[in-house]
């Protein structure tokens, strides 16, 4: 699974990249001067916050961090996406690999 972010100083910091890897994510950045790629990253953050963060009681940052692996798994395996014809990314990949 990839973690896509822009090339800002926080996103490219060693600690941030190491944190992403510790969650088992492939840390990627959008190409420089790529508004399309940055738009994808921003859309993901908006969707993720709306569907996972804001609907859960989050008493502390460690609590949020502990939830991330399960949320990422659900987002990729079970959560329907409008842009993928209401399939999860996993379902979409399976459907398109058989085509």
TrEMBL record:
Residues 1-97 form the Integrase catalytic domain. One of its GO terms (molecular function) is nucleic acid binding. It holds the Pfam family rve_3. GO terms for biological process: DNA integration. InterPro entries: Integrase_cat-core, RNaseH-like_sf, RNaseH_sf. This is Integrase catalytic domain-containing protein. It comes from Myxococcus xanthus. The lineage of its organism: Bacteria, Pseudomonadati, Myxococcota, Myxococcia, Myxococcales.
């Amino acid at each position: 699974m990839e973690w896509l972010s822009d090339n800002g100083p926080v996103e490219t910091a060693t600690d941030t990249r190491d944190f992403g890897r510790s969650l088992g994510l492939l840390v990627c950045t959008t190409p420089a001067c790529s508004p399309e790629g940055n738009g994808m990253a921003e859309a993901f953050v908006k969707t993720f916050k709306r569907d996972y963060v804001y609907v859960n009681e989050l008493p502390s940052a460690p609590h949020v961090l502990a939830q991330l692996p399960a949320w990422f798994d659900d987002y990729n395996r079970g959560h329907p996406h409008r842009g993928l014809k209401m399939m999860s990314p996993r379902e979409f990949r399976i459907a398109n690999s058989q085509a």
